[in-house]
Amino acid sequence: MADDNISYGFETLAVHAGAAPDPVTGSRATPIHQTTSFVFDDVDHAASLFNLQAFGNIYTRLTNPTVAVLEQRLAGLEGGRGAVAAASGHAAQLMAFHVLMEAGDHFIAAKQLYGGSLTQFGQSFKKFGWEGTTVDATNVQNFRDAMRPNTKAIFIENLANPGGVVVDLEAVAAVAHEAGIPLIVDNTLATPFLCRPFEWGADIAVHSLTKFLGGHGNSLGGMIVESGKFDWAQNDKYPALTQPNPSYHGLKFFETFGDMAYSVAIRALSLRDLGPALSPTNAFYILNGIETLPLRMERHCDNALKVAEFLEGHAKVDWVSYAGLKSSPYYDLGQKYLPRGAGAVFTFGVKGGFESGVTLVENVELFSHLANIGDTRSLIIHPASTTHRQLEEAELIAAGAGPDVVRLSVGIENVEDIIRDLDQALAKV
Amino acid sequence: MNHDRYEDDYIRGILRETEVIAMVGASSNWNRPSYFAMKYLQRKHFRVIPVNPREAGNKILGETVYAALADIPDKIDMVDVFRNSEAAGPIADEAIAVGAKTLWMQLGVRNDAAAERAEAAGLRVVMNRCPKIEFGRLSREIGWMGINTGVISSKRRSKI
To answer: Which residues of B touch A (CB under 8 A)?
Structure first.
């Protein structure tokens, strides 16, 4: 058979992984299975499905054939064992922790995270009794120092949003494994095209599919991928995976499902009880987007580097934080972990502070002024006057959103057009 | 042969040619992994004959339980070992004695000396794998749970 045990290239996986012609109809594109429920063959079949003894569909909150193609696509691209989709990146993060944490447990997160993640961890996770410590991820020792007996995971962004910070993934993975806990990496900004965290020792990858993977700014989605390599039974930290589960009549997930236990448990426990399933229609749009991910990421990164170089030389710009620039303190880590490009989201400081930032975002014509990243279109935001408006100046600076900070998500348009637009807007500052 | 990884064709060939599986260490407890695997394989049209001395004479999923492989009156294509790696040694010798064509050791079970003896006797050997998971992977059914099958094909098919 031609398909046996061939390691396909990333670009091939981006188009094909998880998808196959429909066995009944022959449909080549992945059909949108816009249905809530699936019929059982008989009572025994239903019982087998509910008891996790057969593979099959029950209800779209748990599994859906369109969503499953997307899950396999991400598992393939990350080189992982299995994946579970979620309604958003935030929902994916919630479920990634849900099977690991009990009330009273602790986790360590990088301080250099998307602001929405810091809020989720600091506010909503606290209500579940999950305590997070945030540390400066640019010094790996900080993770070791923050470790406690009840620490259940480390969470980082390998390429942090928005600061252009590249974290030393391999070193942080080693700290996690010394403590017998998994490293969770938010790989949203890099995407598996630029970095595959499992190759550096990470155990779990989470994504907002809403960004570069979907890539067109039209659908929310999230994903959790597991490497399948973490030994959940090496200690007694993960009872949800190693102890008998009362809602499945004493089933032990790790014993029964082995290297896919984590993703099966997220599906059987977290999706079942928390409920943030991805819509099949969104899965279809995101699948379409992923087919061109390699092409888009190459263009995104090429454009971003040219725009960063332009801004670095601009008289009205104080600084540019982009790991692809040789002036960046993260350039070397970027070369190691992101050799194909440092992504397309970065920040820079415009001279004149708050008022200049406002003038800039109000005078762009091609850039869209909005609070998203990873669109085909170039996007711009001035956090101090929008997303971080409630904060005082000291808080703004601590959050990496000082009054002069402007964030770009460089799109795949003609790069000369992108630069010309910034140039004319900066001229009005 | 190398038992660290198997070609898909090797596993596929075994599963296609197997009709009757003797499952050593089959449990009557429905939440044990062996029960899961037996129930799944039955739905995939394998006949699975349970072997477990403590359950001999009872029935599991409609099949009579035997105390030992030698007690089974029917022909056996595959012996599936749901016991630990050490126990797999004597089971391999029994599998050779009853004329099985394949010796299959479950996830986490590996006994290289037993595998060598079985291979010398002409049996095909798989270790540290689950036939349920492999069947589900090769048929892509396991992908319905978001599990990476590693299978890419532009062909329209639903069998393994």
So the answer is: 7-9, 12, 30-31, 33, 35-36, 39-40, 43, 107-108, 130, 133, 136, 140-158
Q: Are residues A199 and A252 in the same domain?
A: yes
Cross-chain residue pair A82–B140, CB shorter than 8 Å: no
Q: In chain B, what are the domain boundaries? A: 8-131
The residue type of A407 is: R
Find chain A residues with C-beta within 8 A of B31's C-beta: 51, 248-251
Tokens encoding A65 = 């054939």
Residues A229 and A375 both lie in one domain: no
A1: in domain? no
Fold classification of B8-131 (topology level): Rossmann fold (3.40.50)
Structural domain harbouring A374 = 294-427
Place of tokens 């949108």: A32
Angle at A335 between CA A334 and CA A340, to 5 degrees: 95
What's the confidence (pLDDT) of residue A6? 63
Q: Of A53, A68, A76, which is closest to B36 when you measure between CB atoms?
A: A53
Instruction: Please give the tally of structural domains in chain A.
Output: 2
Asked if residue A298 and residue A275 are part of one domain, the reply reads no
Determine the 3-state secondary structure of A415 from DSSP.
helix
Which is more confidently placed, B107 or A308? A308
Residue B157: is its pLDDT beyond 80?
A: no
And the tokens for A337?
């972990």
Residue contact A22–B9, C-beta within 8 A: no
Q: How many C-beta atoms lie closer than 10 Å to residue B89's C-beta?
A: 15
Mean pLDDT of successive 10-residue stretches along chain A, which has 429 residues = 65 96 93 96 87 90 97 97 98 98 97 90 96 96 98 96 89 98 98 98 98 97 98 97 93 91 97 98 98 98 98 97 96 97 96 96 97 96 86 75 93 98 97
Partner B contacted by A204 (CB < 8 A): no
CB contacts, 8 Å: A26 with chain B: 156
| pLDDT at site A2 | 39
Residues of chain A contacting B150 with CB distance shorter than 8 Å? 5, 76
Task: Assess if residue A4 is contained within a domain.
Answer: no
d(CA B79, CA A162): 57
In a domain, A5, yes or no: no
Q: Computed from CA positions of residues A119, A68, A212, A188, in that sequence, does the dihedral angle turn out positive or negative? A: positive
**A2 lies in a domain?**
no
